[in-house]
Design a protein that fits this description.
The complex is a heterodimer of chains A (about 450) and B (about 300).
Chain A (H helix, E strand, L loop, with lengths): L2 H8 L2 H29 L12 H32 L7 H23 L13 H23 L8 H20 L13 H35 L6 H15 L14 H13 L1 H14 L4 H6 L1 H23 L2 H7 L3 H31 L6 H34 L4 H38 L7
Chain B lengths: L4 H25 L14 H12 L54 H9 L1 H4 L12 H12 L5 H22 L2 H10 L3 H4 L9 H14 L1 H4 L30 H10 L15 H16 L18
Helix pairs in contact in B: 2-5, 3-5, 6-7, 9-12, 11-12
Classes of the chains: A mainly alpha (about 450), B mainly alpha (about 300).
């Protein structure tokens, strides 16, 4: 079949809907991020606009990135590769489109809730109770479509991408319910120290059981195709999958090493944080050996280029993360911008860049036409790459300044004037990322709806 | 290993269940719910203030989690699990763009907080906190009740002290300029009152003092030291007008002591955590030199001159 025929045969409305969702929320989320970064440079900036005040726009930024941009982007790719890997049609495009629409309504309701001051005040679990339920329903709709498609497969063997995608949505629906304490609608929280333990179990699993596996699934799908190489090792895929599920779920308490939680829990979280090198390196060895000697092919495909870059960030962010769980390191890095840098490396540098790669890989295949502009996609690649690399450097420097000063007995106020130039640099780098996001939105919208390119 | 849908789903779900049970439920079930010695329940108004704190994301910049190696505000009390038993949700936080607030209650009197919420730079010129004037008077008052309860029983003790000295300082202020200056000097221990500023006045030292003044003092005392900084309308007794101290025998030692320890009850905080000795002496001399127009810097008795002195 030609790409055009293939695209018509599948319909692909669901993948298209989630692609647009992701590109749109990337633009919104970076706008929220810019506003928040603006407050750090000039705190009186838009000082009396209640709904985008720093304490509200920051959780809007984080939740829009997690549940608006990255997750739907990775899900869009999954809606493309799942039917193809299983040699069948998607169970229901109508259900899929409905799930995408409902997903957008849920995220928008979450933004409105936080903007209006109904945040539940728990990092990564801010969204109000009603929105929590809507998010879980959104995941539920996606799960039904994934699992029913698996059920009607004609391909008996499940490829590793399928394992990750199925596990990620099912596990996240569970941890989301648990982490947001949905059985207590008024506060959405437990009381005391156990609330912190639960919160970070959930918060870290947003990354460990949702973004990482979904992103790895995309990398496992795209890179072998783009380089026309078989996957290096099935055994490594297996070890990587099971070790990821086991190790990642143990490490949330490394956010609480300096808090009165049981010592055995801290010990487990430190040991497993170091053990994270196993799933990470197993995946990287597997995927890097797969594309070994084929970097020209990676470069030629804009989707693969993004995704390969994501794997490099996956390496850095995880080695750094293992280090940060060591108590001696954490005495300096905790509570400051080092961690903000780390979070951006993980969520944007790895998962976000991988999601973008997934979008660019599937776009020509779901529309049956070439990308509206390869140039704009490359332009976005460099904007995002320079932005995120700059973020990593600047925020790490800020973190070291803060952490060392505090540890040596300087008060927080003493350090503030010296941070100004770094926050200005960070704002400028954020501008690159935001321009990248809007460029991407334009390119995606043109590719989906106003693409004058000839059908391939 | 053959990965079938059943293997994947049953496998990952049973792993998640087992791990959630050990890593979350077990510590929850084993939790020690004994209140710590500073614990008390919050009043309804404090709870209402806490809700404002939660809904406006104060936690993104203010931790409530004092560690064994902290030095800043609240570090006298290393956090214990019994401090948090009524916190739902707990607000430990993950970042300190502002100071930790575990023990913020009673660090300052209410009027300092009101001015600070209207615009944080009024009381802390180098603050990065956005203003909260839009909350309106009523919600700012409620939020202040919560902040003043942070530290619970320990905060109550500090608030008692604030209230006691607030009354004393108002009495002194209302007795007139002369009596107020005398009262301020009398609060300083005897030994400190007779000490002149041991550092010599120099152009460089005045420059440094000027910079410290701008970072820490200008919001209340104003650019010309007349106590008419932007915080002034919210603060009572109002910020001291330094120019009224001329001819009232205010020694360098008195100024140093009041900057170091602050004047509890008034909006004047202590600066001994923020500033080292030389910085306090030099900003003190800046005030004495420019605003009081009388400096005793490097007067006798001064002991052996330090090696670096001109």
């Amino acid at each position: 079949m030609s790409p055009a025929e293939e695209s018509t045969a599948h319909g692909n409305q669901t993948a298209k809907a989630f692609t647009l969702t992701s590109a749109m929320w990337f633009a919104f989320a970076t706008t929220f991020g810019m506003i928040a970064a603006g407050y750090l440079v000039a705190p009186d900036f838009m000082a009396n606009v209640e709904y985008i005040h720093f304490g509200r726009v920051r959780p809007m930024h984080v939740n829009a990135v997690l549940f608006g941009f990255v997750t739907p982007g990775l899900i869009a790719a999954a809606f493309y590769y799942i039917p193809r890997l299983l040699r069948t049609r998607l169970y229901s495009e109508r259900l899929g489109v409905f799930s995408a629409v409902f997903w957008n309504i849920s995220v928008a309701a979450g933004m409105a809730g936080v903007a209006l001051g109904y945040s539940q005040g728990r990092e990564y679990a801010e969204l109000p109770w009603l929105v929590d339920i809507m998010i879980v329903i959104s995941f539920g709709l996606v799960i039904v479509n994934f699992l029913m498609t698996i059920r009607r497969r004609t391909e008996p063997i499940l490829y590793v991408s399928i394992w990750y995608a199925a596990a990620a949505v099912v596990l996240t629906a569970c941890t989301y319910l648990l982490g947001n304490v949905v059985w207590k609608p008024d506060t959405g929280a437990l009381a005391g120290i156990p609330d912190a333990i639960l919160l970070w179990f959930y918060g870290h699993n947003v990354f460990g059981l949702l973004l990482s596996p979904m992103a790895l699934a995309v990398a496992y799908y795209v890179l072998p195709i783009a380089t026309r190489s078989p996957l290096y090792s099935h055994t490594l895929s297996l070890i990587g999958f099971w070790s990821l599920i086991i190790v990642y779920t143990h490490i949330g308490t490394h956010h609480l090493l300096q808090v009165p939680v049981p010592t055995w829990l801290k010990t487990i979280s430190i040991v497993d944080s170091v053990a994270m090198v196993i799933p990470v390196m197993v995946f990287l060895i597997n995927i890097w050996y797969t594309v070994k000697g084929k970097l020209g092919d990676v470069h030629a495909d804009i989707g693969a280029k993004f995704i390969f870059t994501g794997t490099i960030y996956y390496f850095f962010v995880n080695i750094q993360g293992s280090m940060m769980a060591l108590p001696d390191v954490q005495r300096i890095t905790h509570f400051n911008n080092w961690v903000v840098g780390h979070a951006h490396m993980g969520v944007l540098g790895f998962a976000g860049v991988t999601a973008l790669g997934g979008l660019y890989f599937i776009l020509p295949r779901i529309t049956g036409r070439p990308l509206h502009s390869r140039f704009l996609a490359d332009f976005q690649y460099w904007l995002v790459l320079i932005g995120i690399t700059g973020f990593s450097i600047v925020l790490t420097i800020v973190g070291l300044i803060q952490g060392q000063a505090w540890y040596n007995g300087e008060t927080l106020y003493r350090t503030l004037p010296g941070l100004q130039p770094y926050f200005i640099t960070r704002l400028s780098l954020g501008l690159l990322i935001m321009v990248g996001a809007y460029t991407g939105l334009y390119n995606v919208a043109r590719s989906l709806y106003f693409n004058r390119g000839a059908a391939a | 290993m053959r990965m079938t849908p059943a293997v994947i789903l049953v496998g990952v779900l049973s792993l998640l269940a087992a791990i959630a049970l050990t890593m979350v439920y077990w510590p929850y079930a084993q939790q020690d719910r004994t209140p710590s010695e500073i614990f008390r329940a919050r009043t309804a108004e404090e709870e209402a203030g806490r809700l404002i704190y939660i809904q406006n994301g104060c936690v993104y910049c203010h931790s409530q989690s004092i560690r064994a190696f902290d030095w800043d505000m609240g570090s006298e009390r290393i956090a214990q699990s019994g401090d948090y038993i009524a916190d739902e949700p707990i607000q430990l936080g993950s970042q300190r763009t502002g100071p930790d607030l575990s023990q913020a209650g009673g660090e300052h009197p209410d009027d300092w907080h009101i001015a600070h919420f209207i615009n944080p730079r009024y009381t802390r010129p180098s603050s990065l906190m956005p203003p909260f004037e839009w909350l309106g008077t009523e919600r700012i008052d409620t939020l202040t009740r919560y902040v003043q309860s942070l530290g619970l029983k320990a905060a109550d003790r500090r608030m008692e002290r604030q209230k006691h000295w607030k009354a004393e300082s108002i009495k002194a202020y209302e007795a007139g300029v002369e009596a107020n200056a005398r009262w301020l000097a009398e609060q300083v221990p005897e030994g400190w009152r007779s000490i002149p500023n041991p550092y010599p006045t120099s152009a460089a030292a005045l420059q440094r003092g000027h910079r410290i003044y701008q970072y820490y003092c200008i919001g209340c005392h104003g650019p010309i030291g007349d106590g008419m900084g932007p915080a002034q309308p919210w603060i009572y007794p109002p910020p001291l007008n330094f120019t009224t101290l001329t001819g009232r025998e205010i020694s360098g030692g008195i100024i140093y002591y009041q900057l170091m320890n602050g004047i509890t009850g008034t909006a004047m905080p202590y600066f001994k955590r923020d500033l080292e000795s030389q910085k306090i002496w030099e900003v003190g001399d800046y005030i004495a030199h420019y605003f009081i127009n009388q400096s005793d810097a490097n007067h006798e008795p001064r002991g052996i001159d330090a090696a670096w002195e001109p």
